[in-house]
Amino acid sequence: MLPLILFLRHLLGTIYNPYATFRQISLPRQDIRQIIFIHLLIFIYFLLTGLLKTGFSNPYLLTIKFNSLYFSSYLGFALVIFLLYLGSLLLRFKNFPLIRIILLWSYSLLPTLFWFFITSLMYLFLPPPRTLSYPGKIYSLVYLAFSLTLLFWKIILYYLTLRFGLRLDLYKISLISLFIIPVIILYSFVMYRLGIFKIPFI
Amino acid sequence: MENDFFYQQLVAKMQQVSIVPPQNMGPLTPLYKRLVPQFKHFPFKALIPLSLLAILFAYLIFGTKLVRLASILQFSF
Asked: Where are the transmembrane segments (chain B) (predicted)?
């Protein structure tokens, strides 16, 4: 029960008070079991999205779709952790706080998960493409504003992961980002070319 | 003093607050200190208006291309 309570508390904290919440999560002796719920939500999301994209009619295709989406998303997760490790080596850190980084980066997946969930739901209720009518334009602008808000939220959580995960200042965060962001762009491009993700699950 | 519950809580809080050194950005530090609190507590109160303004501004520049972008993004989950 405790990990669930911790998860819910930190989930709300990530929305209402991300700075203090990420600082709290980065403290020693945190319960790692709390992130099970985030990864469970990711699993549920890919299960549902696989169904939405391929339907029940072809279980073989459904399995392939689910596997490719699910494993590619965790490839992205592992890539980010590895890049942060390499970044810490570049900055000559002696100990890489792996558990702390996994905890913080898992919470950083919340905006991504939320965007993918809402986009899938809206795909179901108001399928694209959008028209150039007034409602079409208004919906498009609101949807883009929503996406941009979540992107900003993601950037804040990325910053806080580096700030509290590796205890860096803004200057070092900018330096390490110069190394991380091009690799993430390359990963996104490869995922796009492979037809797995148009927007990477990072 | 060491047995006082509130004192211990205060010390724990002070230690927590000081796990990262204060941000120093040279001449930009006052601006940083004014901007950043907006994003520390419920960042959406700043992010939502900022995003709406950015999208309206982008609409003035790119026009209906944004509608196409929204459609592409909606296919991208």
From this structure: 42-62
pLDDT tens track for A58-113: 778 778 888 899 999 999 999 999 999 999 998 888 889 999 999 999 999 999 99
Q: How many structural domains is chain A composed of?
A: 1
Domain of B49? 37-77
The distance of B16 to chain A (nearest Cα, Å) reads: 7
Query: What angle (nearest 5°) sits at the alpha carbon of residue A76, between those of residues A71 and A78?
Result: 90
User: Domain total for chain B?
Assistant: 1
- Of the candidates B64, B68, B63, which has an alpha carbon nearest to the alpha carbon of residue A130? B68
Residue type present at position A140: S
Interhelix angle A134-165/B44-62, rounded to 10 degrees, is 130
- Candidates A131, A189, A153; CA nearest to A161 is A153
Domain membership of residue B17 (yes or no) is no
What value of ipTM does the predicted structure carry? Answer: 0.89
Contact A200, B77 (CB under 8 A): no
Distances (CA, A) of B63 to A113, A133, A139, B33, B55: 29, 13, 14, 36, 10
Does B69 sit within 8 Å of A146, measured CB to CB? no
pLDDT at residue A178 in the model: 94
Read off the pTM: 0.92
* Residues of the domain holding A123: 2-193
Does residue B23 belong to the interface with chain A, where contact is any CB pair within 8 Å?
yes
